[in-house]
Amino acid sequence: MFFKVKYFFFFFICFFFFNCKKSDDAKVNSETIIKGTTTIFVDETITPIVEDEIMVFESKYDAKINLISKSESEVLNSLFDKKVGIAVLSRNLTKKELNIFEQRKVFPKITKFATDAIAFVSNRNSKDTIIALKDVISFMKGNRDSSIKGLVFDNPNSSTVNYMNNLAGISKLPEKDIFSFNTNNEVVKFVSENDGMIGVVGVNWLSQPNPSMNEIIKNTNVLNVKGIDGKGFYAPSQNNLAEGTYPMARDLFIINCQGYSGLGMGFASFVAGDIGQRIVLKSGLLPVKVPTRKLNIIRGQTNEGKK
């Protein structure tokens, strides 16, 4: 009886392993770099540019990409927990994070494709159109000597919060005069209705707003920012990002942990290629490679001397 149970258990394990392996192989074989279906998690602060890239990619290839927007922390946790194999982040992986993958014998393919920025927005009725980064950091540390009444963030776990916390040298946001919502749209709406509040959002949401947000954005100002050691105030424009004068720029990356030649590799190549970089340029962000322009010179013929 013992041997029958042992034999049955062994058979069950082999059957389960074989079917799982078969399922994995079927998924890999049905997906190529330009064909198949996959899911990508994206930092919600840069969703608009990724939506644009996916729309054009799908129009050119027999591919379907399901895009899921999450906070930066949720995206990273999903990568670590193997819930997703492809992610788009507003920063590169840290050495500690890379070590986690390497211990699992997973070696992410990382593609930098654009430069975004974090912007400060205020109510349009506000007289101030400039802000010093050191004043914002001082406010986050508890000082209340500036004209700032409150800072408004999208999500406690977002990339903008992590970025600002790192700048301020704090581990978490203070509770006093700090507000957080769920989305960038909610931040902009709150700022448009409340004087003295400063919203902290990704530039991508301002350069490519949802049509329903156009009127709300008209009631806000995007502030020019002076860096901690800077002398001038600069807007988060494409030109200032290119010249490196805007103090709160950040690079965007595609993190591919699929481990095979699937849509992760194809999508990353597309976004880093000529068409993908033109989409970035048109969005108002800064592409890694500025697409070349071809000029066709047509020599005209004159009718001088003819009657």
TrEMBL record:
Locate the PBP domain: which residues? Answer: 35-273
Q: Which domain of life is it from?
A: Bacteria
The record's listing under SUPFAM superfamilies reads: Periplasmic binding protein-like II
Which UniProt keyword terms apply here?
Signal
PANTHER family according to UniProt: PERIPLASMIC PHOSPHATE BINDING COMPONENT OF PHOSPHATE ABC TRANSPORTER (PTHR30570), PHOSPHATE-BINDING PROTEIN PSTS (PTHR30570:SF1)
Q: What is this protein called?
A: Phosphate ABC transporter substrate-binding protein
Tell me which species this is from. Flavobacterium laiguense
